[in-house]
Write the C-alpha cells for this entry.
Amino acid sequence: MSLERATGSFPQIPPPNRTFASGQLLSFSVCVRRSHLGHLLATGICSVSGNKIDGLTPGGAAATAEAMIVLLSPAKTLDFERALPPLTVTAPHFAEEACSLARSAANLSQKRLAELMHISPRLAKLNADRFRDFSDLPQRQALYAFAGDVYTGFEVDTLDEAGVAFAQDHVRMLSGLYGLLRPLDVIRPYRLEMGTRWAPRHRKLTDWWGDRIAALLRAQVAEEGSGVVLNLASQEYFAAVEGRLEGLRVIHVDFREPGANGPRFVSFNAKKARGMMARWMCEHHITDVEAMRGFDSDEYRFDPAESDAVHWRFIRS
C-alpha cells in the first residue's frame, strides 16, 4: 500500500496529559493512502499547502468534527457456530421487549409465520421452534452473529480491538426483534423482519417499534455529542424511525454501479458496500461525518454531482 506522509496543523488536539492555550496549533504527521489523498483533494474534503494537509485529524476526520452514529440493517443469515475469541458482552436496551415479542410470536402457527414472513414451511418450523424455546437459545454478540451481505463487507473477524470498541460507540443495528442494537449486545437466533405486518396491538412492527427506537437513538446520538445519523440501513428498516428524528441531521447513503443507462443499483454489491463503509469508519476511527465522503474501498468514490446535503451517492469505478 502506497502511503504519503505529510504534516498538518490543527487547533486544540493535545496528546494525553498535555494542554495547549486556546487557538494554539499542534503539528503532527499523518499517513494517507496515496489514492485516498487524491480523492480527498478532488472532492474538497481537504487541501494541501506545501507539505501540509488541511482538514484531516490524526483519525482521518475533518478539523471541525461533526460526530455521527451509523445505522445498519441486521441479517437473516446468522452464525452461532464459529469459534470466537473472548469478547466483551453487553445487554440489549430492549431485551425485555424482545422477550415479550418472542412470547407473542410463539402463539403464531407455523402456517401463519410462513404467510407473514413469506418463508418456506421448513423455515417456518425453524422459527416457530426458536420463538417457543427463545429463553433457552444460545447468545452471541450481534456484530458476530449477523452473517449476511452487509456483514461480509464489514469483516468483523479482522477488525482489531480498538476498531470493535469504536464500533460499539458509533454503530447501531436496527432489528425487528431487538429494536436497536450495539455491536456487542448479545442476541439469540431469530428471524423477524421490520417490515412484518404483525405486532402486538399494532398492524406492523414499524409502528410497534418506531417511537421506542427513535427515542433511544436520539438519546444515544446526544450521548455521543453528535447531531448526525449516517443511514446505511435498508428502507425497510429505516422506515421504523423515518419522520421521528426531528432535529437530527440524517444522511442517506446510496451505492451504485456504472451502467449503460446511468448508475444502477445492484443489491448484493450495495449491501456489501454498506458494511465496508461502516468497517472503514471503525478501522480509521472516523469521527467527522464529512470525512466519510472519502470512503474508497472496493473502488467506490463519492460523486458530488449526484449528491446533496442529505443524500450521498457513491459510484463504483
